[in-house]
Amino acid sequence: MLPLEGIRVLDVSQIMAGPHCTMILGDLGAEIIKVEKKAGGDDSRQLGPFINGESTSFFQINRNKKSIALDLKSEEGKQIFYKLAKTSDIIVENYRPGVTKSLKIDYDTIKEINPGIVYCSISGYGQTGPYAHKGGFDLVLQGMTGLMSMTGEPGKKPMKSGIAVYDIGAGITAAYSILAAYIYKQKTGQGQHVDVSLAEIGLPWFTWEAAAYFATGKIPGPSGWRHRSVAPYQSVQTKNGYIMVGCANQRTWEKLCTDVIDKPEWITDPRFKTNTDRINNVEELEALIEEVMASHDSAYWLDKCEKAGVPSGPINNFAEAMQDPHYLARDMIQEVEHPVIGKMKMIGIPTKFSLTPGKIRMPAPTLGQHTDEILQSIGVEEEQIQSMRQNGVIL
């Protein structure tokens, strides 16, 4: 039995934030019914690369879901949605605020049909506030929240994160918030509206930056390849590349000096004696470490760090990461059979449960693949299904 087995989720989201949230819920056993527009479905279906005409981007984030292609602008389509909402526990949507109300599928409408519904809205700026009407995009919000001003190298152009951190972060935040609301519903019988915004979910992540700013007024700038408050905690160059070394406390710094780079005199050197000293002299410290590490390749230094108990690791490209024996042993790369794409690998499930492990039960659906099955599950007769198909209500 999976932990969320028996829970039905109506997914009216697309692209990344909402679908990532519902993928998490699906991995844990929830039944995910993905309601897609008839013309093209989820917009991520148009994102390449493609195999046999199917989007591999959509494939990666929409496993463990069933697809129904439904015209929500038609009255008959709305009635089908209401029937699905009545039998669902959770609804996830990421329209711009106001759109669900115009479609008459907003929280206030749905709670009249299903008072216990947990209804999650994911948007750029939230359902209230002066920016609520704006569309929200990951990169725009990386700029607005200050993240880009802290990323990259000092004196150079602001840099975005290498991945869509706020889209994924919003999906994760929505997932745990939905589960909290669902637990509350189990205790009280009351559903509620969960409001998640990309503009806010990342702010609590700025722990060290907030500590410095609120304490001293210091505005954090980009720290490049270094940690902003610990040294040496950064990438360093070796004979044949770069590795990460993390001396997050005095003990590991001293271990680095004595057991890795054979410089015990640096422990009492006034430039490097304390973490504050090392931060203040980090340019000089880095140059000296790299001078030593230029004598051997990365594998040599990683082995020495491992034996000394100094946290370290390789700086992999994505292909190297996907072939790492640790990830393979932990089932973080799995192969799935898709009806159109064929066999293809995807990222696995990061949470490991001792009793109820998550499972990839099905690949991402083709557009409208489960329309008939879903309609039959809510009592729609075959004759009506064919009529709706002829009238353009369903695909």
Q: Could you explain how this protein is built, in words?
A:
The strands form 4 sheets. A 6-stranded parallel β-sheet has the order 5-2-1-6-7-8, sandwiched between helices. It has helices at residues 17-27, 56-61, 75-86, 99-103, 107-113, 138-144, 147-150, 165-188, 198-201, 207-216, 250-260, 275-280, 282-293, 298-308, 318-322, 325-329, 371-377, 382-390, and strands spanning 8-12, 31-36, 50-51, 54-55, 65-69, 90-93, 118-123, 192-197, 233-237, 242-246, 312-314, 333-338, 342-347. A hairpin with a 2-residue loop joins strand 3 (50-51) and strand 4 (54-55). By secondary structure, it is of the alpha/beta class. The longest helix is centred in the middle third of the chain and has 24 residues, at 165-188. The protein has 18 helices and 13 strands. 39% of the residues lie in helices and 15% in strands. The chain is elongated. Helix 1 packs across helix 8 and helix 11 packs across helix 14. The model has no long low-confidence stretch (mean pLDDT 97).
